[in-house]
Design brief:
16 helices; 406 residues; mainly alpha
Amino acid sequence: MCADVKWAEMAAKLTDRESDDASDFSLVRNDLLFRLQRQLGLAPAEGLGTGRRALFWALLAWLPIAVWAMATGHLLARGGGESLLQHFGVNVRCLVAIPLFIAAEGVSHRLTVSLMPYFVTSGLVSAADVPRFRTILRDLARLRDTVYPWVVILALVVAVESVAMSVADTHELIWAGPPGDTAALGFGGWWYLYVARSIFLVLLLAWVWRVILLLILFLRISRLDLKIVPTHPDGAGGLRFIERFPRAFSPVLLGISSVMAAKWAHDVVYHGTDVQSLRVNMISLAVVLLVIFSAPYLMWIGRLLSAKKQALLDYGALVGDHGRLVRRRWIEKGAVDDEAILAAPELGPVADTVALYETVQKMSIVPLGKAAFLALAVPIAIPMLAVIAIQIPLKDILLTLLKTLA
């Protein structure tokens, strides 16, 4: 309890500062976790320092375990027992997932800083709405910097670690002590349970919070009087540029999938588990991750659907007027009172006006295309395919995928 109070006091002091300028909004820079790392000297005064932070946290999580395992003979297999190196999940969690979670911060920062201003420069946000847009970004920056979400994250981690022995996969800890006897774990096992896993959980939950932040951001922006262009060639009313944001989630998804795949790989290699029996688990994990990390884009459905419905009426009326005038002049051979529509160079012949209407019909109500889907799906799939390839030749896997996609 005393430690929690001290942590909260330190966090409160760190929040006593001005929010970032709205024109330089970032999902990660200057949140509480980042400021704590800056206070510890891990993050530089300028920039994010993702490389050094990724190395530090990975080594802090894994190196004490490895040193202990080497000193006590638990690093390599001995006497029929299982070793640390055989438990891929432990090593992948520390050396792959943790660095990927931190590396994703750099990707996210670059994307948000470069793409958020495009809402204004593209004309989606009108000059009259620019102050409201900046207010939204400022409010999100304050929400990002607040202490309370991190108190919840800390509470969740403490809750999980308080019952660590009951929720831990005891088989995953067999390298650190006698089989089934978690009470006799060595230092390496305890370090993994309470330090390495805590680092992993904090970074993972931090990304869940950032997904929520992006969801709130998109929801608030979508409520502005955006100048959506239903005939925009990007097929999403001019909003397709935001499909680049999932690239920030790619390293996170790769890290999560790698941890789960590593555990499955251990079961397949050392315990004879059939990869076919893992199919439901793999599909379930993929669906859950896709739903969570694509959720922010669902906030655009209402706005784009409304714009599309209205555009279908507007452009339908335009095509109708144009068609009636063409028929009046060329079929009925009558006089045309309104020459403006027929002479308008931006409309052109009948085929062009029909093409405008068809473009509106094809407009997507979710600004996610193939590139965004691949940015989310491929990082999830790669580790799973590696597990499947242990028993099924890679050539057969690729042929099956090609047949499915064909």
